[in-house]
Design a protein that fits this description.
single chain, 319 residues, alpha/beta, D-Maltodextrin-Binding Protein, domain 2, 2 domains, five-stranded mixed beta sheet, 14 helices
């Protein structure tokens, strides 16, 4: 989604919300829990949130989480601003672009980060087994599949292109959902795909090869995901925001302390084959926002034209 497209989104959201009373936000149920509607990106991000809910961390903080799957990126932000969602799991680039264009949202907690160990990076640039490509430099002029346009993919792949001596527009990004990427590469619809777990391990089983680690190539431990809330909800329900933050942090701490338990749960919460769950690379989750990651990403966003000027993180980040 280009910057001018965000202006259209902002205008549409303004029209949509003008004259709305806003109400009191999420309501408390008979069980004493407040129902919170959240959408999160399919794959590892969704698995994390589902695991935390299953472990009871959200209920312990007064939240009845209603989780839905999304394709990620900017797709969930209009739903958040219009009130159809209470929380949107997205990536930091889409969130920053929206905030920079004046949409009334804030980052309330950190989503996924990548590993400090490149071999455990949960992202991968992948090509077909018979492809001659050994790095992104070999993909100049070709198509690369990404889950959504104008998001974190632009930054990490743009960084790889730059390091290879190519310009940001040396390749064409094509929007394809994660579950469909491996087949698209195998058919030759695209030359490569920017994939995350568990789809990387599945793609490896189908013969695809890894030729790059986009997240850790930019920065080991880079924060990729963020949880966004409507600014009005943040202001009117601080106790709800704090409860959500505590639950996300508790989930992150739990996965860090016992990754084996998280792996064991994958076959149940995501219908992942147990043998596959044993092999997938596990994300790093901190729970709290990593500002150095945001500052690094924002600088590149300005360089690549995704952002006109850095946003004020003191205003954009809650907590």
């Amino acid at each position: 989604m280009k910057i001018r497209d965000w202006l259209g989104v902002a205008a549409a959201v303004t029209l949509l919300t003008t004259g709305c009373s806003g109400g009191s936000g999420p309501e408390q149920g008979a069980d004493g829990l407040t129902k919170v509607r959240v959408a999160e990106t399919a794959g590892a991000p969704l698995n994390f949130l589902t695991y935390g809910d299953e472990q009871g961390f959200f209920a312990q903080n007064g939240i009845d989480l209603e989780i839905s799957s999304s394709s990620g990126g900017a797709t969930v932000i209009p739903q958040l601003v219009s009130g159809d969602l209470d929380v949107a799991g997205s990536n930091v680039v889409s969130g920053i672009i929206a905030i920079g264009q004046g949409l009334p949202i804030q980052m309330v907690a950190a989503g996924t980060s990548t590993s400090e160990d490149p071999a455990q990076d949960f992202s991968a640039l992948m090509v077909a087994q018979g492809s001659p490509a050994t790095g992104i430099a070999d993909l100049a002029g070709q198509r690369i599949a990404v889950n959504s346009l104008r998001n974190i993919n632009d930054i990490v792949l743009g960084n790889q292109l730059q390091q290879a001596g190519l310009t940001y527009d040396a390749v064409q990004f094509v929007e394809i959902p994660f579950p469909e990427m491996a087949a698209s590469v195998e058919r030759g619809d695209v030359a490569a795909a920017m994939v995350i777990e568990p789809f990387i391990t599945v793609a490896e089983d189908h013969g695809l090869r890894i030729i790059g680690r986009p997240y850790t190539d930019l920065r080991p431990g880079l924060q990729i995901g963020t949880y966004l809330m409507n600014r009005e909800l943040v202001a009117s329900r601080p106790e709800l925001v704090q409860g959500f933050q505590r639950a996300v942090k508790a989930t992150a701490d739990s996965v860090s302390a016992d990754p084996a338990a998280f792996r064991a749960a994958l076959s149940r919460i995501s219908e992942t084959d147990p043998a596959l769950a044993e092999r997938v690379r596990i994300n790093l989750w901190r729970g709290t926002t990593d500002r150095p990651s945001l500052e690094l990403v924002m600088g590149l966003m300005v360089d690549y034209g995704l952002l006109e000027a850095p946003v004020d993180l003191n205003e954009a980040v809650v907590g």
